[in-house]
Design goal:
single chain; 365 residues; alpha/beta; Rossmann fold; seven-stranded parallel beta sheet; six-stranded parallel beta sheet; 13 strands; globular
């Protein structure tokens, strides 16, 4: 079979690494990079470190308002799909690239495989929530990371084509974790001691676009009892500059880091503070406490274990969550599979398109 894989953002590069490797052993894959993340630190370094083949198409869409960006991606992806005529399209997660790829495929009556299906924050103000819901409802194969995700799809009337396969990021961590431990010199390069610093990331629009919220988060980071390392997202860096926010004592700002260095920085941190869904999971897999800078999460199982705390953006709640983080000996159950998710997905895709229809929408009509 011939598959077209649509990517655009750094979490998708990580997720695609193990699946692309397994897929290409049995099938043809056309890799389409929308350009949603486009500079070296957010894109190229991930392809290099993760051994992902160079994209067959780089659409160069870049950043912009959600509607304009998604529309440009939709038109460009549609052109590629018409030219390549794949038998199916693979999308990952919840970005604008995901939505554009899923919609372009559905309108061309191509079956869609959605990796990381069934996640819900139940916050429709998040663009990512809209993207993942719409992608799920036009997909033929819905690869859910957990039973909770399957149940959420079922409550929305989606029962056909759903497969609980585990989290593809477990595969990525097992594939690249040892390399990160052996190759990364991030701690030495930045003069950090294991367990003697916190690692933070802030990038979601709801946290960066409101000046009071962003200032509150940065104040909380500066008030913590250990130094904070903050690899800064381009959106956050732009907002900090626009707001004239000066350097925050106790917070060391770094440029975006590659995947291997980010794994090393997470592994060595006393606690991770983030609004990233991927880092919530990676922190859990690395047995590092996480404080999520949101009021909700798609990865509710990590919260139930006590390893992840929803602190929102209130500075006092953030400080309290860090102070009360779990310590050694806290139970750490396996949540999202055994690292064989890519193998399961390849087996299911290799069986061909289900007889129930080309798209999930067709199958459920």
């Amino acid at each position: 079979m011939k598959f077209a894989t649509i990517l655009g953002a750094r979490p998708q590069f990580v997720k695609a690494s193990p699946l692309s490797r397994g897929l290409r052993q049995r099938h043809q894959e056309v890799l389409v990079h929308t350009g949603q993340h486009y500079d070296y630190g957010m894109s190229d370094v991930f392809f290099e470190e993760l051994g992902i083949p160079a994209p067959d198409y780089h659409l160069g869409i870049g950043s912009g308002p959600h509607g304009a960006q998604t529309g440009a991606m939709l038109a460009a992806v549609e052109t590629v799909l018409q030219k390549e005529a794949p038998e199916a399209v693979i999308v990952y997660g919840d970005t604008n690239s995901t939505l554009a790829g899923a919609l372009a495929a559905a309108k061309l009556h191509l079956p869609v495989a959605h990796v990381e299906a069934g996640l819900r924050s139940f916050n429709r103000r998040m663009p990512e929530e809209i993207n993942r819901v719409l992608a799920d409802h036009v997909s033929t194969w819905l690869f859910a990371p957990s039973e909770v995700s399957r149940q959420r799809l079922e409550r929305e009337g989606i029962r056909e084509g759903v497969h609980v396969v585990g989290d593809i990021m477990v595969d990525a961590l097992r594939l690249h974790g040892e390399r990160a431990a052996a190759r990364s010199r991030a701690l030495e390069r930045f003069g950090l001691r294991r367990g003697a610093y916190y690692l933070a990331t802030v990038h979601r629009a709801e946290n960066t676009d409101d000046p009071d919220v962003l200032r509150g988060i940065l104040w909380a980071l500066g008030a913590l009892d250990q130094p904070v390392v903050l690899p800064i997202h381009p959106r956050t860096e732009k907002r900090v500059s626009e707001l004239g926010i000066r350097a925050v004592a106790n917070v060391r700002v770094l440029p975006p880091q590659g995947y291997l260095d980010m794994l090393a920085l997470q592994r060595g941190a006393a606690c991770v503070l983030t609004d990233s869904g991927g880092m919530q999971k990676e922190a859990y897999y690395l047995e590092v406490p996480c404080v999520t800078l949101r009021n909700e999460t798609e990865w509710v199982e990590t919260v139930a274990t006590g390893w992840n705390t929803l602190a929102g953006t209130d500075p006092e709640r953030i400080l309290a969550a860090v102070a009360q983080r779990p310590g050694a000996g806290t139970p750490h159950p396996e949540l999202y599979g055994d690292g064989l998710t890519a193998r399961r997905i390849v087996e299911i895709l290799s069986a061909g398109v289900p007889a129930s229809g080309l798209t999930g929408a067709t199958a459920r009509s």
